[in-house]
Each structure stands twice: as structure tokens, then as C-alpha cells.
Design brief:
- This protein is α+β, with helices and mostly antiparallel strands and 144 residues long.
- The protein has two domains: 7-47, Arc Repressor Mutant, subunit A (Orthogonal Bundle); 67-135, Alpha-Beta Plaits (2-Layer Sandwich), CATH 3.30.70.
- It is built from five helices and four strands.
- It has a four-stranded antiparallel β-sheet with strand order 2-3-1-4, with helices on one face.
- Helix 1 (7-18) packs across helix 2 and helix 2 packs across helix 3.
- The longest helix has 14 residues, at 112-125.
């Protein structure tokens, strides 16, 4: 069953996207919605898994993850990405995609050497046919 989000839900979500540390009263002030309503709505959004978790956005350069890579991956039939990839700290996002490739993986590294070490292990451990790697040259917009 799909949950329908109304304008109050969307205002609360927008406020949390801007700053997930905002207290209930701060969200209330920003949205014009009563604090008790904000509290009830957030509880419902969490219970219904619309809000999966509260997180933060780090400054890539300051945390040593300024070398950002997008890797398109073509896997062998029935290949399953194990926890060595899904649980790897460099792997930030994985999506199944349509077209010539099966997956797109967003990765973050300190530098090209760290990336190269990852790629050598990745290709050895996984059932990979081919990859196409693109290195980000500018961070125009990145959201969580």
C-alpha cells in the first residue's frame, strides 16, 4: 500500500533535508506546523519507512574522499555482489540499470592510488565481464 504524502509531510521532509538535526520546534517554526503535529508526522513517516534514516553530508575534500568515480559494470550471468563490495566503505551507492551495463556504482577515494587498489581487488573478487569508469571532475550538485 502506497502512502500518500500531503503538503505538511512534504514541508517537514523538506526541512529535514535542509538540516536533519533540526529539533521539532525548529521544524515547526520553519514550516508553520504545530510541534505536536510535526512530532506525530515524523513518527508516522519513520514507521512507514518513508524516512529510512537520518544522516549527514560530509565535505568530500575535508574527509579525504574527493576522488569520486562512477563505474558502470557488466556482470556475468547470476553474479551476486557480495558483502565485500556492498559493505566496502568506498562504495557509496549501487543501482541496477538498463542498457549495456547491469550496475552503476558510485565510489569515493582519497586519491587515484587508493582507487587503483580497489579496482584490482574488485575485478579479482567479483564476476565482472567489463567495466566503464568515469572520474568526476567537478561536484556540481550532490545530495543525500
Amino acid at each position: 500500500m502506497e502512502t500518500k504524502l500531503d503538503s505538511k509531510d512534504l514541508k517537514i521532509i523538506s526541512a529535514l533535508k535542509d538540516d536533519s538535526r533540526l529539533p521539532i520546534r525548529g521544524i515547526s517554526k520553519k514550516t508553520g506546523i504545530r510541534p505536536s503535529t510535526v512530532h506525530q508526522r515524523i513518527a508516522r513517516l519513520r514507521k512507514e519507512n518513508i524516512i529510512e534514516k537520518f544522516t549527514l553530508k560530509l565535505n568530500n575534500k575535508l574527509v579525504g574522499e574527493n576522488f569520486i568515480v562512477f563505474m558502470l559494470v557488466k556482470t556475468k550471468p547470476a553474479a551476486i555482489l557480495g558483502n565485500s563490495i556492498i559493505g566496502n566503505s568506498h562504495v557509496k551507492e549501487i543501482f541496477g540499470v538498463t542498457g549495456e551495463y547491469d550496475l552503476i556504482i558510485k565510489l569515493k577515494f582519497r586519491d587515484v592510488e587508493e582507487f587503483n587498489d580497489f579496482v584490482l581487488r574488485f575485478r579479482k573478487e567479483q564476476k565482472i565481464e567489463t567495466t566503464l569508469t568515469m572520474i568526476a571532475t567537478a561536484d556540481v550538485k550532490e545530495e543525500i
